[in-house]
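help with this:

***
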Amino acid sequence: MMLWFRQCRNNGINYLFSIYYSTAASAATSYNNLLAEILVNSLGFSNEKAISTSANVTLLKPGNNKPQLVINFFQQIGLDKTHIKSLVSSNPRLLFSDVDKTLKPKIKVFQELSLSGTDLAKVIAKSGSFFLLSLDNSIRSNLDYFRKLLGSDDSVAKFIKREPRFLWGINAPKLMSPNILLLQNLGFSSVDIQKLMIWNPRIFTQKAGRLKDIVDRVEKTFFLSRDCNMFIHGVYALVWLDESTVKKRLEIFRSFGWSDSEIFTLVQKLPLCLTKSEAKIKNALNFLMKELGYESHYLASHPTFLTCSLEKRVLPRHNVLKLVSQKEPTKCSLNLYTAVICSESKFLERYVLPFKDEMPEVYDLYIKSRM
């Protein structure tokens, strides 16, 4: 009798749990469908994308109009549907933020720095989960500290666009001050420190001892003096490279017949050439030296060749010049290096658009190569 009672009791509990989870699952599905509908109607999501995005959140409840309020707020501050779609796709929980308590105070900080449109959307996206944390005094403290170091809101904006989490996720004065002081004691000017901050804010989150080692290595590895303009570029490069990686990359140049003198000429002119991956360095040297016939001493004195993307810049521009020279050899200067260091607009103006009518294949070739 007791056994039968326990069995009935257990079956009853299981039945109740079954009803509970079935009801909860049905409600969750209903709420997710509602969110998917908002994404389709308000932001132009496809049905498939809306369903997959809404499946990543379980915060919607009956009567919860936060998603629409958040969308309306982002539109009011100047973000278009493309911006908002991108934000919601990467972080759907943004739609459940409290507009007044969470979003408005943070957006106000960004607006103080004149960030808007695409820049504002990118900064929000890069802030990740930190953007959803409550605003507190440390954010204002960090912002004031960056203004003091960088001197202008324009510079602070550039800095924040690089690493927006520095506003929310750290105690900047405590974390960064030791490295700022170290560089000042080593003779770095305020202008050099500002450049390093904007190039790569994470340099200043290193342990002070490691940053001192990096500065010493720039002198020993690259034979650059601290009063040289390229010295801070060397510091920037070596933040990413340990000693073994530098040795491997120098060996690649030697394997293509470069002398140590030529290698150091290259590195002293532009240390950033060593930040390219080993595969990219090999591909560039193969193309420039073996296919085009450039000699090492020329490349050493023209280091930009090795910092530009082979696939996206050097090859497309080489192909345009090759085609133009076959048909109209006297139309323009056909020096590849000159063409490679041109800005995009200058290259189009000088080497592509003049031939658009009489040689449309030149224009088509270049546009296709950029896709």
